[in-house]
Amino acid sequence: MTNDDLILQTITPVTHDLGGFKVHRTLPSRPRTMVGPFLFFDQMGPAHLSVGQGIDVRPHPHINLATVTYLFGGAIDHRDSIGTFATIEPGAVNLMTAGHGIVHSERSPSAERTIGPELSGIQTWIALPEKNEEMDPAFEHVGKAALPVVETSGARARIIMGRLWGVAAPTTTYAETIYADIMLEAGGSVPIDAGADERALYVALGDASLDGMTLEPMTLYVLQPGVAATLRSTRGGRVMLCGGEAFATPRHVWWNFVSSDRERIEQARRDWTAGNFPKVPGDDKEWIPIPDVPLTVSYP
Q1: Is the four-CA dihedral 32, 38, 39, 41 of positive or negative sign?
Q2: 121 FRET partner, CA 20 to 30 A, in 48, 73, 112, 176?
Q3: Residue 299: is its pLDDT beyond 60?
Q4: Do 162 and 173 touch, CB atoms closer than 8 A?
Q5: Residue 151 contacts by C-beta under 8 Å, 6 or more apart in sequence?
Q6: Percent of the chain at pLDDT above 70?
Q7: What's the Rg (C-alpha) of the chain?
Q8: SS3 sequence, the chain?
Q9: CA nearest 245: which of 177, 158, 182?
């Protein structure tokens, strides 16, 4: 089997240096906006910040999407406008459903700042089906112990969302979604099934290959539909598998707003500018202002 038989598309990251840590973004991109319901894919770090420092993502809004936060290292305090306060740690998942509108902030916990925070993980956005875009906002924290782990041939795969390798995560899904954290030992392997409409692999740490094809780190590989293959690692690696059902209706993306309706994004922009979004209890003194850029589909 040739590389073209395995890989439909290869998306290299755009890297942003945020001072102390880097973010590598592969979705959205000019070559492709979505893989299944996934339309935003960021790797944060890995990084160790100095003592006293931390991440401080000030309150900002979202509409018509769900955010999924998953950490390899460190911790983040999440607060949102429906009154949630939750600290996420490695191996757990935070699912925040924006629906018709939510505001949230993400900051390093005080205890992390005193030792110099570690930051390593993946943040994704998932498009909501049109029938769910204007639902009430919601938040769900699923702890590490509640997410099933499949072990095979020197590999451990934690199922973050959906059903894979015969087991299902309890995390809410709105469309068919697959999402897994695959931890490969040196010489380990795991089969990648052909089940979902659209699938992609991303090597976050270490090394990996797919049926003998070397996968470059921090690169998103969109797999050919219907092709099964074997993922392997020589020295050990950590690979994310994501995807799900293909969306028939494209999504517009501008700043932190996503919608199937372009005018809905314009309305959200007006509402944030006018201060019409709700505040975040316990974190209402700061906010991220609306960017001064044209309302067009946004790529990094």
Answers
A1: negative
A2: 176
A3: no
A4: yes
A5: 157
A6: 97
A7: 19
A8: CCHHHHEEEEECCEEEECCCCEEEEEECCCCCCCECCEEEEEEEEEEECCCCCCCEEEEEEEECEEEEEEEEEECEEEEECCCCEEEECCCCEEEEECCCCEEEEEECCHHHHCCCCEEEEEEEEEECCHHHCCCCCEEEEECHHHCCEEEECCEEEEEEECEECCEECCCCCCCCEEEEEEEECCCCEEEECCCCCEEEEEEEEECEEECCEEECECCEEEECCCCCEEEECCCCEEEEEEEECCCCCCCEEECCEEECCHHHHHHHHHHHHHCCCCCCCCCCCCCCCCCCCCCCCCCC
A9: 177
The residues pairing with 94 across neighbouring beta strands, listed in sequence order, are: 69, 141
Sheet holding 213-215, edge to edge: 189-192, 229-232, 208-210, 213-215
State how far the Cα of 225 lies from the Cα of 197, in Å rounded to an integer: 6
Q: What is the pLDDT of residue 300?
A: 37
In this structure, what token pair is assigned to residue 5? 């038989």
Q: How far apart are CA 107 and CA 74, in angstroms?
A: 11
- 2 contacts: CB under 8 Å, gap ≥ 6: none
Q: Given this model, what pLDDT does residue 18 score?
A: 74
Tokens linked to 175: 């469309």
* The predicted structure's pLDDT at residue 114: 94
What is the reported pLDDT for 1? Answer: 60
Report cis status (omega within 30 of 0) of the bond before 217: no
For CA atoms 273, 284, 65, 293, the dihedral sign is positive
284: left (phi over 0), alpha (psi -120 to 50) or beta: alpha
Chain segment 255-296, per-residue pLDDT in tens: 999 999 999 999 999 999 999 999 999 999 999 999 987 665
The span from the CA of 192 to the CA of 228, in Å, is: 6
210-221 pLDDT tens trace: 999 999 999 999
Pair 121, 71: CB distance under 8 Å = yes
